[in-house]
Every structure is written in structure tokens, then in C-alpha cells.
Design a protein that fits this description.
By secondary structure, the chain is α/β, with parallel strands linked by helices. The protein folds into two domains: 204 residues, TIM Barrel, CATH 3.20.20; 156 residues, Rossmann fold. The protein contains 13 helices and 14 strands. The chain has a seven-stranded parallel beta sheet with strand order 1-2-3-4-5-6-7. A five-stranded mixed beta sheet has the order 9-8-12-13-14. Strands 10-11 form a two-stranded antiparallel ribbon. It is globular and about 70 Å long. It starts with a strand and ends in a 7-residue tail after the last helix.
Length: 386
């Protein structure tokens, strides 16, 4: 009989403390499951930012990183079927990853590349296959096997004939790299999961089954564009800040049937529709709809920054006579999010002018990042970061 296990990632909200984790694992065992698939970043303490980002993506990881998972798994009588990690950790220290896997009694280490690679770029996929081979060879030397776990992003075409997954299958060495196949994600992407499973054959070592529902449609993996545009009054939004603001948008539209579009044409079309002259702009639902149709885009995230700066203020006797340094933070911006599906539109105004002690202030670009994150997550019915 095959071993039935639950992926730890699916249990993030019910592993908050030792008693809760113990009860959850006991319930799994009682329900007929034999094992658990552990995730490296859920069995070790992780940073606050990682928890926020996974929560923003609708996949909270919980607070189980401080628990003794060796003891919990043993007490529950569960088998660890594999350990999930990331490619960077493998490349830094394959032996350490292998040793941890073996400490749990599993021979499989699994990685996923979701969010980390451009699956529409052929050169990137050739490079990824080579890196997987090298990492798998290093693990094999330690007595552990490497498996690659798919999502739907691997279905993106890298050229007229091949998808990203084709390259990973063809260019990875079965001696060093095999696969954990997730049939949900390929079905969600409109692919014939059974046909891919048959093609994998004996290279499919583990099988992920998921009942979260699918969205099969002709539009799947058509690279529906999501337009992201930022304007300000001075043209001085730095690339570093702009790149940071893109992240919440990428997280909200992270599945590969969407493609972030912030080209010069996108900016030109948007500017022609919103600016009325003399620095004035008008954005409402009808304007957003018109922009999305002209680009065309499935969704539009538009940010207009009127003021954004920090200013040192010293010697503020009226607040503190010791001459401490304070920072005045000014942020005056508007965020608009539009989705063609349902003709949905939302907007957020940010008006901040505050003075705080140096070191206690919040950088205006960070405030903007989380404000954008909140708006796009509201639009996509994802958990909101407060």
C-alpha cells in the first residue's frame, strides 16, 4: 500500500503551539494518514517578513518553527516522507540539508521554484536544469535524493515548441533529479495531468493530490497581462523603490497565467487617459476600465505619488530640550486597483505628515509597499496585511 501523508504547508494555521500541533498530528493519524511532508521553513524559526509574504500570498505558515518536530512526529507515529527546502540552501550546504533529511528518516529532499524563476525564459530554464543536476549530484553523494515539485508556472511556453517543464524533464539527469508531481497545479493550468504523469513514468517518486478546486479555462496560461504603473510629480521615483513596490503586485498576481506589464506603452496609454493638464489627474472606474481595455490588461494597479520625502528636524525644543534628531515623513499618494473580471475598482488615499524620533520612523517607501499590498490583496480576496 502506498504511504499517505499530509504536507505540513497545509497545516500552517493549526500548528500554533505544541499542544495544537500534537492534536493536529494525532487527528491526521486517526484519519488514516501514515506520514507528513515537512517544510524546512516551518520547522525552523523564520523572520517576520517571510511570514508576512506567505500570508499575503494566501498561504500562512503559522508559528511552528519553534517546536521540536523530531519529537512531535515520533510521538504521533508518523513517517516523514520528504523534506521541502529551497535551491539556495542546497547550493550553500547540501550536506547540512541531507543530514537534516536523514535525521527525520527520509531519503527525499524536495524543492519548488515557484516565484523564484522566470519560467517563460528559455535560458533561465536551461540554467535551472543545470543547477538542479549539480544540487542533486551533491545530495546523492550524501545518500539523499532530490525531487522537483511543480506548480502551474512550469507550463509556460519558453518557445513555440516547448514549455518550461519540457526542459526540466529533458535536461535533468534521472541519476540526480526526479519529481514530485502535483496534479492539482497542472490541472488548474488546463493541462492533462494524467498524460504528464505517464510521461514522467518512474521518475515520479511522490504524488501531490489537492482538493482546493480548479479554474480550467481557455485563458489559462495565456499570460494575461496585469498592468502596473507609477507616476509622480517630479519623475524621481528611483528604480530601487519602484522595484520594491512591484513586489506586492507580483505576489498578488503570482500565478503564471498573469504577466506583469509595466512597459513604456503601458505608461503612455495610462498617462493619456488620466492626466488632464497642469499636473492634474482623474481616475475613476470608467477611466480604469478604458485603460485596461486599451493596453489590454486583465488588471491594473496604478500609483500616483504627489509627495514623498523624509526631512531631518533638530533642536525641537517644544518636544524635547536635549536637541534630539527627529524625522519628518511626508507621504501623499493615491493607489487605484482595477480588475476586468467583475468590473471591480478600489482606491486608497494616503496622506501622512508625521514627526518621529530618528530610528522610530517608518520609511515612506515601506508605507507605500504595504498600502499597495493591502489594496491588491483586497481586490483578489486574499488575506490583508495590516
Amino acid at each position: 500500500m502506498p504511504t499517505k501523508a499530509v504536507q505540513q504547508f497545509m497545516l500552517g494555521t493549526v500548528l500554533g503551539n505544541e499542544n495544537e500541533a500534537r492534536q493536529t498530528l494525532a487527528a491526521m493519524k486517526a484519519a488514516g494518514y501514515d506520514g507528513i511532508e515537512l517544510c524546512g521553513f516551518m520547522i525552523h524559526p523564520i523572520g517576520f517578513m517571510v511570514r508576512l509574504l506567505t500570508k499575503a500570498a494566501g498561504m500562512p505558515v503559522g508559528k511552528g518553527g519553534n517546536l521540536d518536530w523530531h519529537a512531535l512526529v515520533k510521538e504521533a507515529g508518523l513517517q516523514v516522507v520528504s523534506l521541502h527546502t529551497d535551491l539556495g540552501s542546497l547550493e550553500r550546504d547540501a550536506k547540512a540539508v541531507a543530514d537534516e533529511a536523514k535525521s527525520f528518516g527520509t531519503k527525499y529532499v524536495v524543492i519548488t521554484g515557484m516565484y523564484r524563476f522566470d519560467y517563460g525564459d528559455e535560458a533561465t530554464m536551461h540554467d535551472l536544469a543545470a543547477r538542479l543536476n549539480k544540487a542533486g549530484e551533491a545530495l546523492k553523494a550524501e545518500g539523499v535524493e532530490l525531487l522537483y515539485h511543480n506548480h502551474n508556472c512550469e507550463l509556460r511556453h519558453v518557445n513555440a515548441e516547448k514549455r518550461a517543464y519540457d526542459i526540466l524533464l529533458e535536461e535533468t539527469d534521472p541519476q540526480f533529479v526526479n519529481f514530485e508531481f502535483d496534479s492539482y497545479w497542472f490541472t488548474e493550468g488546463g493541462a492533462n495531468a494524467l498524460a504528464w504523469m505517464q510521461r514522467l513514468g518512474t521518475r515520479m517518486k511522490l504524488w501531490h493530490i489537492n482538493d482546493r478546486g480548479t479554474r480550467i479555462s481557455a485563458a489559462a496560461f495565456a499570460d494575461q497581462p496585469v498592468a502596473f504603473v507609477v507616476f509622480d510629480n517630479s519623475g524621481n521615483v528611483t528604480q530601487q523603490v519602484y522595484k520594491m513596490w512591484r513586489e506586492p503586485v507580483r505576489w498578488a498576481y503570482h500565478f503564471p497565467d498573469f504577466k506583469l506589464v509595466d512597459t513604456d506603452r503601458t505608461k503612455k496609454v495610462t498617462a493619456e487617459n488620466i492626466f488632464t493638464g497642469h499636473g492634474k489627474s482623474v481616475v475613476d472606474q470608467s477611466v480604469a476600465r478604458k485603460i485596461a481595455e486599451e493596453i489590454p490588461a486583465e488588471a491594473l494597479v496604478l500609483v500616483i505619488v504627489h509627495d514623498m520625502y523624509e526631512q531631518m528636524v533638530q533642536g525641537m525644543i517644544w518636544r524635547n530640550e536635549d536637541g534630539s534628531t527627529y524625522v519628518r515623513t511626508v507621504l501623499n499618494a493615491d493607489i487605484y486597483v482595477y480588475r476586468k473580471d467583475g468590473d471591480r475598482f478600489s482606491k486608497k488615499r494616503i496622506r501622512e505628515n508625521e514627526i518621529k524620533e530618528l530610528g522610530n520612523q517608518t520609511a515612506p517607501e515601506e508605507t507605500m509597499k504595504w498600502a499597495i499590498s493591502k489594496q491588491v490583496n483586497i481586490m483578489e480576496n486574499r488575506p490583508v496585511i495590516n
